[in-house]
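Figure 3 (text version): C-alpha cells given as input.
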C-alpha cells in the first residue's frame, strides 16, 4: 500500500517534489543597483561632490555621504506617485535610495499599503516590526520596517510635526553597505542583528 501511494505521489505531484525556491530579487531602482558608482546623468546635490547653486545641502568635504538625483526621475512606483528619489553614495557606492510618497493626506495609509504590497510581490518582503511613537503632543512617527528576500531593508515612515502629518518617506538600503557608512561616521557603531 505504501509503495502504491508513493508511486501515485510521484506521478500526480512532480511539481511538489521538484519545487524550487522563489528567486531572490535584488531591488533595482531606475536601473541603479546597490553597490554601483554614480553614473550617467546623475547630479550631485549634497555632500563633498556638491558645487554651485545646485548644492541644496551640506558641502563639507569631510562628510562622507554624497546625494545624487537624476534629471529625469521616476515619478511613479507601481502606480504610486513619488517624489524624485535621492541616491545616497558612500565611497562611490550606492547604499540607500530615499523618496516620498506623494498622496493626499487622507489616503496616505492606503498609498503606503499599496507600495508595500507591490514591493512584497516584487521583492518578497517580511515585516520586521512596526513602530509608533508619540512622545510629544502634535509629534508622532509611524514606521514600518521590512526585509526583502535578498536581505535588503525597506523602511516606510510617516511623521507628524506640529500636528500635521507629512508625506510618507521610503528608505531602501543595503544593510552591509549601510553598516559601513554608520561605522565610518561612528567608530563605536555595532551592526544590528535584525
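Below: residues designed for each position.
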Amino acid at each position: 500500500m505504501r509503495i502504491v501511494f508513493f508511486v501515485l505521489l510521484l506521478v500526480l505531484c512532480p511539481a511538489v517534489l521538484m519545487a524550487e525556491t522563489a528567486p531572490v530579487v535584488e531591488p533595482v531602482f531606475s536601473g541603479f543597483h546597490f553597490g554601483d558608482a554614480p553614473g550617467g546623468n546623475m547630479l550631485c546635490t549634497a555632500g563633498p561632490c556638491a558645487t554651485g547653486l545646485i548644492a541644496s545641502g551640506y558641502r563639507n568635504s569631510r562628510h562622507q555621504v554624497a546625494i545624487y538625483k537624476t534629471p529625469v526621475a521616476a515619478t511613479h512606483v507601481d502606480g504610486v506617485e513619488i517624489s524624485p528619489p535621492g541616491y545616497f553614495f558612500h565611497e562611490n557606492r550606492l547604499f540607500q535610495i530615499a523618496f516620498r510618497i506623494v498622496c493626499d493626506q487622507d489616503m496616505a495609509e492606503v498609498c503606503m499599503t499599496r507600495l508595500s504590497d507591490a514591493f512584497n510581490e516584487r521583492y518578497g518582503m517580511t515585516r520586521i516590526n512596526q513602530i509608533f511613537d508619540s512622545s510629544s503632543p502634535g509629534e508622532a512617527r509611524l514606521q514600518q520596517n521590512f526585509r526583502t528576500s535578498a536581505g535588503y531593508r525597506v523602511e516606510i515612515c510617516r511623521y507628524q510635526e506640529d500636528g500635521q502629518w507629512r508625506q510618507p518617506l521610503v528608505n531602501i538600503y543595503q544593510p552591509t553597505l549601510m553598516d559601513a557608512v554608520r561605522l565610518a561616521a561612528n567608530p563605536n557603531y555595532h551592526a544590528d542583528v535584525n
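Confidence is low (pLDDT under 50) at residues 1-22.
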